[in-house]
Design a protein that fits this description.
It is built from 20 helices and 34 strands. The longest helix is centred in the C-terminal third of the chain and has 20 residues, at 501-520. It has five domains: 2-75, Phenylalanyl-tRNA Synthetase, Chain B, domain 1; 94-290, 3-Layer(bba) Sandwich (Phenylalanyl-tRNA Synthetase, Chain B, domain 3); 299-368, Phenylalanyl-tRNA Synthetase, Chain B, domain 1 (2-Layer Sandwich), CATH 3.30.56.10; 387-585, Bira Bifunctional Protein, Domain 2 (BirA Bifunctional Protein, domain 2, 2-Layer Sandwich); 602-689, 2-Layer Sandwich (Alpha-Beta Plaits), CATH 3.30.70. Helix 13 (386-400) runs antiparallel to helix 16 and helix 19 packs across helix 20. The radius of gyration is 35 Å and the shape is elongated. 31% of the residues lie in helices and 26% in strands. The termini are far apart. With 691 residues, it is an alpha+beta fold. Strand 25 (468-478) and strand 26 form a beta hairpin. The strands form nine sheets. It has a seven-stranded mixed β-sheet.
């Protein structure tokens, strides 16, 4: 950020600081000066390093506020000779001359328009030219210069349109149409995408929102009527468009670092005042504002004891409040609770959100150099978070089951990404030169693991039980067709070789059940049901949803043959993916202890023949619905397929346990219960008792 010493001093009272004074104050406040250059007129240009979270300091007023806090001076805000909302007079209303249709309030929180008529566009006065040249800008004309001046003074980008060039003299904030053309101020024609914001008139796009204006609506010497835009935009949307089109502007740089909606009106009034001063004209009464209602400033409380504990120095609560008020934070000391109630100022709503943020500001204003460095540091040892313990436990368990953990990149090819996108979701492509071969964020971790498996195959890796891999990683998708609702899910993904497809699926199911019960306890119920909606990577004959206690948390499937060809894998692979956050949230496992039974129980094994498609869950539910008297447990023993049971059939063996805590059970007491179970299985599932 280039700043002018003379300009900075005009915003301070008294404004008599030297370049050395300013450099010292800013450096101690966390804004090192990287260079300085002597200018004519006893001015000095300073190059100040600004961190990305301090968009408010990409302006003279922001850095002047920091200098004022560090040196005990008073900050002088620019004076505007009229009400910032109503304007200077009571003539025609702006809403009678133009209108604004904000169709994208979710990414344009505030858009304002003001109208100035009969302006004389021409050269700027000397003071304005010198101010812009001091920060490396060239003068264009008095109207454009007014907008640029406020950009460097307040940090708020604005834009001026020649109103007579606008179709129907109105503005629409919307997303661009596919390949919609726009010739920007630099004279280059661009074809826009549907996820890029524009400001349009009734017929065409006239500005790339938040980045650069259009050439056809630019203010020239022939302009007489001006429509002044002041707005704020979603940083990610602006950054995406600017990077794809490779258009770097001062306006885009600031919008990418958040411009508060609450600062827009003052900046617009400041630009209008300079235009009226340098070019004359009449400003129509009022301003048009489009977007959601402005919300009250956030309020954050800071405990004095917490501040003292973190900084390690004793400060009175009044000193803490004074340090914050020097930065424009409105403070109210609560002596009863020994805390400070802080109202976040408009220019800091993006980065003053937590108590620790306020404590950091107290430390900066007090001076880091005044905080003593001790020879010893007291360390309080705390146990790891439950989520960390759970992840370690799961990683250890998987390692014990023969899995190797991987760490892979989040980028995949277009084909790999498309194979994992579920119906109704879109994949995400990034515009990054270094990722031309794999420019998509992975929707699933499966492609990364399968690519890793291919590398191991090519390297001749052989393991007796087959290669097994797992990874905790994120997947990325977009919800709607226009791609503006990103969903990031943290997955636990696993793959394992499956030379025998059925055996591979059963083993993966066993791994999943072990994971769930390790994380959540033995009482957790794991349900496996065939998938209704499949992705291209899922085998159509062998894919299932995984649910725990009725809540879907993942999927398990053989990798489809077509996908196997993409990764050039020789042997079948079974894969699973579980919602990592849902799994870890089950931890720690719930367990209970009970006295050992005083009397022996009776176990009965039952083998039934059912259709191949009948899942174990249906068998278990049927038995449990019968509620056999004295039954205390039901477990799966095994499954058999062969000529003896017939084609399309399978034999399922289950074990029922019966117990009476008061006495020893007799077999004749259990026989009727078993008969009831066999009858219910036959009626509801068409099961036959296997001889």
């Amino acid at each position: 950020m280039l700043i002018s010493l003379k300009w900075l001093n005009r915003l301070l009272e008294p404004g008599d600081l030297s370049a050395d004074d300013v450099e010292r104050a800013l450096t101690h406040a966390g804004f090192p000066v990287e260079g300085r250059e002597e200018l004519s007129g006893a001015d000095v240009r300073l190059d100040v390093e600004i961190t990305s979270n301090r968009g408010d300091c990409i302006s003279h007023i922001g850095l002047a506020r920091e200098v004022a806090a560090a040196t005990g001076r008073r900050l002088k805000l620019p004076e505007i000779p009229f009400d910032i909302t109503l304007g200077p007079g009571a003539g025609d209303a702006a809403e009678d001359a133009t209108s604004v249709d904000n169709q994208t309030p979710e990414v344009c929180p505030r858009f304002t328009a003001r109208v100035i008529r009969n302006v004389k566009v021409g050269p700027s006065p000397k003071w304005l030219v010198e101010a812009l040249e001091a920060v490396g800008q060239r003068s264009i004309n008095n109207v454009v210069d007014a907008s640029n001046y406020v950009l460097f003074e307040l940090g708020n980008p604005t834009h001026t349109f020649d109103m007579k060039t606008l179709a129907e003299q109105r503005l629409i904030v919307r997303y661009a149409k596919k390949d919609e053309p726009l010739v920007t101020l630099e004279g280059k024609k661009h074809a826009l995408r549907t996820d890029e914001l524009v400001v349009a008139d009734a017929e065409r796009a006239v500005s790339l929102a938040g980045v650069i204006g259009g050439l056809d609506s630019a203010v020239t010497e022939k302009t007489t009527d001006i429509l002044l835009e002041a707005a704020t935009w979603d940083p990610a949307t602006i950054r995406r468009a600017a990077r794809r089109l490779r258009i770097i502007t001062d306006a885009g740089h600031r919008f990418e670092r958040v411009v508060s909606p609450r600062t827009v009106d003052f900046a617009a009034a400041r630009v209008a005042a300079i235009i009226l001063e340098t070019g004359g004209g009449e400003m129509l009464a009022g301003a048009i504002a489009a977007g959601p209602e402005l919300t009250p400033p956030p309020v954050v409380s800071m405990r004095a004891a917490r501040c003292t504990g973190l900084l390690g120095i004793e400060l009175s609560i009044d000193e803490m409040a004074n340090h914050l008020e020097a930065l424009g934070v409105a403070c109210e000391v609560d002596a009863a609770t020994e805390s400070v109630r802080c109202e976040t100022p408009d220019h800091r709503t993006n980065d003053l959100r937590r108590e620790v943020d306020l404590i950091e500001e107290v430390a900066r204003v007090h001076g880091y150099e005044k905080i003593p460095v001790r020879e010893k540091i007291e360390v309080a040892v705390a146990p790891p978070q439950e989520s960390e313990r759970a992840q370690r436990e799961i990683g250890s368990l998987l390692a014990g089951l023969g899995f190797y953990e991987t760490v892979t990149f989040s980028f995949v090819t277009a084909e790999q990404a498309a194979s994992c996108a579920p119906p109704g979701m879109r994949t995400i492509k990034v515009d990054e030169e270094r990722r031309k071969g794999a420019p998509y964020l992975r929707p699933s971790v499966w492609p990364s693991l399968l690519e890793c498996r291919r590398v191991n195959q090519d390297a001749g890796v052989r393991i007796e039980e087959g290669v097994r891999l797992f990874e905790f990683g994120a997947g990325f998708l977009e919800k709607d067709a226009k791609g503006r609702d990103t969903v990031e899910t943290r997955w636990l993904a696993m793959i394992m070789d499956a030379p025998d497809r059925q055996e591979g699926l059963r083993r993966m199911r066993g791994v999943i059940e072990t994971l769930v019960r390790t994380a959540g306890g033995a009482a957790r119920n794991v349900e496996v049901t065939p998938r209704a909606e499949r992705r291209p990577i899922d085998d159509p004959d062998a894919s299932a949803d995984i649910a725990v206690d009725g809540r879907r948390i993942g999927v398990m499937s053989l990798v489809a043959p077509a996908a196997m060809k993409v990764y050039e894998l020789d042997a079948p692979v079974v894969a699973a993916e579980l919602d990592a956050d849902a799994l870890l949230a089950m931890y720690p496992p719930k367990s209970s202890a009970a006295p050992l039974p005083a009397f022996p129980g009776i176990e009965r094994d039952l083998s039934i023949i059912v259709d191949e498609q009948t899942p174990w869950a249906k068998v278990a539910n049927t038995v449990e619905q019968e509620r056999p008297e004295k039954m205390t447990g039901l477990t799966f023993v095994g499954v058999y397929r062969g000529k003896q049971v017939g084609a399309g059939k399978k034999s399922v063996t289950l074990r029922l346990r019966f117990l009476d805590p008061e006495r020893t059970l007799r077999h004749e007491e259990v026989d009727p219960q078993m008969q009831r179970v066999v009858k219910a299985l036959g009626e509801k599932l068409g099961a036959e008792l296997r001889a």
